[in-house]
Amino acid sequence: MREVYIISGTLGVGKTTCTSILLDRLNPASLIRIDDVIIKYEKSNLDWHELLALVWSDILSNIDEPSKFKSSPFIVDCVVDDGEEKYLSELSKNNTVYYFQLIADEKTLKSRIESRGDDHMISRQLEVLSLIKNNPIKLTHSLNTTNMSRSEE
């Protein structure tokens, strides 16, 4: 069984910072950024849910391929998706999965997204944050990064 760490959340919650820290601590480990996998399929003219299904299928096949990366852990930096639980369940069949849902309060999230120059993404990310807060499964695995700086995440 392989260890798989899923770090999920909206823009601005600290996923990249957390995955970088994990990567250093678990060395050797393999990092999969879902954004990089999405780029591979973005010209396929699929709707968002079909695209994510294809992306997760790709991720699952990479993680479950025994010859790839020997037995080192995988870290997956991913965006929040409604169907995430389905993929986590699939991953759990052959792997030990550690799932972390990063969240931050609305004011902090907005500030972090603005500082990145992604102002056009704020309303969607606040909408997704609301969905997370109303999902008991996601909240069970949540880590609030509101009061954390980059060095603490």
Task: Itemize the secondary structure elements and their pairings.
Blueprint: E1 2-9, H1 15-25, E2 30-33, H2 34-41, H3 48-64, E3 74-79, H4 84-92, E4 95-103, H5 106-116, H6 122-133, H7 136-140, E5 142-144
Parallel strand pairs: 1-3, 1-4, 2-3, 4-5
What does this structure look like?
There is one protein chain. With 153 residues, the protein is an alpha/beta fold. The protein contains 7 helices and 5 strands; from the N terminus they run βαβααβαβαααβ. The chain has helices spanning 15-25, 34-41, 48-64, 84-92, 106-116, 122-133, 136-140, and strands spanning 2-9, 30-33, 74-79, 95-103, 142-144. It has a 5-stranded parallel beta sheet with strand order 2-3-1-4-5, sandwiched between helices. Helix 2 packs across helix 3 (48-64) and helix 5 (106-116) packs antiparallel against helix 6. The longest helix is centred in the middle third of the chain and has 17 residues, at 48-64. The protein is globular and about 45 Å long. The chain starts with a strand and ends in a 9-residue tail after the last strand. The mean pLDDT is 86.
